[in-house]
Amino acid sequence: MAALEQIKDYKNIVIKIGSSLIVDGTGSVRTEWLKSLVRDISELKKNSTNIIIVTSGAIALGKKILNLKKNEKLKLDMAQGTAAVGQIELISAIKNAFSEENIKVAQLLLTIEDTERRRRYLNARNTISMLIDNGVVPIINENDTVATSEIRYGDNDRLAARVTTMASFDCLIILSDVNGIYTLPPDNSNAVHIPEITNITKEIQSMAKTTKNDYGSGGMITKIEAARIAMDGGANMIIASGKEQNPIKALMDGGKNSHFIAKITPHLARKKWISGMLTPNGKIYIDDGAKAALFNGRSLLPAGIVNAEGKFERGDAVIIFDKDRNEIARGLSAYSIDDTLSIKGKNSDEIEQILGYRGRTALVHRDDLVISDTGN
């Protein structure tokens, strides 16, 4: 299916905005462009499409406020402080634009570590899920005020891809100052545009020549790496130009782009990750009622747990066994071993009284669960 046909069918889209798009040549927010993007997003939401925004631009905006040169290279502490100053300007502009369309937004500051360490990953995933369920558009920025290597290498493309897979979204659109990948740098008259990529080969990697702009530090190399992460997570990715007003509408109306096609869905990729890529740190034993519930597609509740073993923390992988010690499932635990033993056999409405805090109703949610045995 062609990219322009398929994008209309996506129901969960991450849109990544580069610094050079949201910040103009004077170091100010491109307010009218931002408003046009938000109008595009409003139309997508009317079609029941869930949207997450990942945006750069805090450092670029902070430079103007602090009277720094836009091309000036900053030491780490100066870059972090500049990001802190610019972050307020950035999120204020975004909030104002969304308010005009009566769309609620929320800001999340993440680093790559938040998407790769399972406890942080689980927290971020749950927060994003709650916001989406309540019709809120998460605005995700890299936490440049505490980031170290990321702040130097401009890796928001990779962060956007991690967010896409973490949220199990099916498409990542990277709006850039280029409209896709070419066999040669786009300004070369012999350059040929590549509209669709199903496998990232050495040839594709060799085409990822670094692009340059006034503010962004990422180039096509980081976008190819983002495509690899997204595709491995079951998501497709689109690189499209964001220079013009209404960039999403322009894309859907036939704008040139490069579409990276994943071989599996986000759901299957996540199940594969849970079942085969994670090392289990514990074992959970359940009764027949809980076993039947799992085979009917439900979550694992504390009431059905007979015992637990191991040294697992919240977010760690565990193996689930029936009373005969047959492995029936694997999943991510919402509680540590100590908390699991405290609430085993109890009703979910007793969790807060026992643990002193309100945790998740399920010990292993069905979205974090993979059945190992059919139960036949």
Short description:
The chain is α/β, with parallel strands linked by helices and 376 residues long.
Structural notes for this entry:
Helix content is 40%, strand content 19%. The protein is built from 16 helices and 15 strands. The strands form three sheets. It has an eight-stranded mixed beta sheet with strand order 3-4-2-1-5-9-10-8, with helices on both faces. Strands 12-11-13-14-15 form a five-stranded mixed beta sheet, sandwiched between helices. Helix 3 crosses helix 5. The radius of gyration is 22 Å and the shape is globular. The chain starts with a helix and ends in a 5-residue tail after the last strand. About 3% of the residues have low confidence.
Topology:
Elements: H1 3-6, E1 12-17, H2 19-22, H3 31-46, E2 50-55, H4 58-65, H5 76-99, E3 105-110, H6 112-116, H7 118-133, E4 137-142, H8 149-153, H9 156-166, E5 171-176, E6 181-182, E7 193-194, E8 196-197, H10 202-206, H11 220-232, E9 236-241, H12 247-252, E10 257-260, H13 266-277, E11 282-286, H14 288-295, E12 305-310, E13 317-321, E14 327-332, H15 337-343, H16 351-355, E15 369-371
Parallel strand pairs: 1-2, 1-5, 2-4, 3-4, 5-9, 8-10, 11-13
Antiparallel strand pairs: 6-7, 9-10, 11-12, 13-14, 14-15
Helix pairs in contact: 3-5, 4-5, 9-11
CATH-defined superfamily of the largest domain:
Acetylglutamate kinase-like
Number of helices: 16
Structure class: alpha/beta
Main CATH class of the largest domain? Alpha Beta
Radius of gyration: 22 Å
Q: Which architecture name of the largest domain does CATH use? A: 3-Layer(aba) Sandwich
The neighbouring-strand order within the major sheet is 3-4-2-1-5-9-10-8
Largest sheet: 8 strands, mixed
Strand proportion? 15-25%
Output the CATH topology of the largest domain: Carbamate kinase
